[in-house]
């Protein structure tokens, strides 16, 4: 596993000299490589490549001895880099085992933290840190994650008070226990992360976004840093640009004395990033400096995961941020203004569907009037929706367009989130699972509505004003949104007209021959009508869809008539790029 070698199955990612392939090492490990090259503080890590994942499934979900020997060799490298030892004291090494596909799929696959903790290393960690409570918390956390993700427990283990209670619950439910041998738990954990790439939630996410179902995942094994160590420790997520509005401002949350899973899960509500600025100003300044560098080098808004251990900042991941449709437009046009990208790239970064979502109706303030909300929280993904509030992902899938209301969401709820018109949670903040996935889906989402919100809403028709963070009883009408008066949309429309391989107009001259797709569908019953060979101009709602635009381009059509030009132009640009 020498530095620079890219054809092996396990890589020492921060020592790779040339840029590794994202398809081989996954986005998470690639970001570690990039951050280390920029001189940022990154805990050492190894990565098991996506090639190994494919081989794992080809061999009937078997982790071969040859591969595992390489993994163990990689762990020895981590021991050398850290001066710690997996499974023994006085300075025990603990690692995280994290998934990382080539295409970002936030929260869809599994991560196991604190691997390497057992009764012996708990005692060593307690002696080393001088904090037996911290060491006990680390072991409890690991056992709860292992029980859920490896042993297969469906019980709620995270809230159990101590390790003994967690182990008892796992054995009672599954008949299994958590092995003391960290090498055995490592082997099982790697297999579990590979398996999570074919979970129902991962398959649903890939299907929704048209991601190939066989991309698998890499697995990153990284030396742990501990945000739950003491009062000078914590964990957080920072977006370099606001993922709701697109404004050029840091946006994020910080959880003192927490680990990353606490923030992502939504089980607790973190503090705003301003808390870090007010209470740890030097640390905040260091974080913002790193974020600016990653934004500049990444040429896009970044979603950054970080941990603070005893006052020292460590960066764990940086990736292109999931964003709302409004933010996608603002970020793309701002980056053009900053000279970072050109208009063609801006038009490629905003999808036709995002514009369709952006032009959806919003709540009509005149109809709201003096009506008081029945629930209120934090706007995690703006928008407006009306529907029946349901309490499970299964009910949301059975009733598309309903409002999914949960205490907090997890990756197991993704199929319901895809079907829902909006998502509401009692707990969690703007970087929780519910918030991040809803922004990716462009689904209205309100988080942190407080205990009891679910019980008060489920079974009722409600109106969700996710832009304002409010939920109202009954149906309140909406108001149409227009491109007019929005300088960012106007700029994007102008660039798209120049770049699209087709002309889009809102009317044609009298006497012009126009093929009407809607009339053809009504006459033939064919949902994908055949466009006549000689047709140069087409109209109809079918040609407002991506499929209709592709058909028009493939048929040699030169002009599409529509009252909604921007999504049609962007769909044409995307199809033209794919066809090249």
From TrEMBL:
Residue ranges occupied by any PEP-utilising enzyme mobile domain in the UniProt entry: 400-469
Signal peptide: none
PROSITE patterns, sorted: PEP_ENZYMES_PHOS_SITE
SUPFAM superfamilies for this protein: Glutathione synthetase ATP-binding domain-like, Phosphohistidine domain
Record has Transferase as a keyword: yes
Any one GO molecular-function label of the UniProt entry: kinase activity
Key words, A-Z: Kinase, Pyruvate, Transferase
Gene3D superfamilies associated with the record: ATP-grasp fold, A domain, ATP-grasp fold, B domain, Phosphohistidine domain, Pyruvate Phosphate Dikinase, domain 2
Top-level taxonomic group: Bacteria
Record InterPro entries: ATP_grasp_subdomain_1, PEP-util_enz_mobile_dom, PEP_util_AS, Phosphohistidine_dom_sf, PPDK_AMP/ATP-bd, Pyruvate_phosphate_dikinase
KW Transport (keyword) present: no
Pyruvate phosphate dikinase AMP/ATP-binding domain segment(s): 23-282
Pfam families from the UniProt entry: PEP-utilizers (PF00391), PPDK_N (PF01326)
PANTHER family noted in UniProt: PHOSPHOENOLPYRUVATE DIKINASE-RELATED (PTHR22931), PYRUVATE, PHOSPHATE DIKINASE 1, CHLOROPLASTIC (PTHR22931:SF9)
The protein, known as: Putative pyruvate, phosphate dikinase
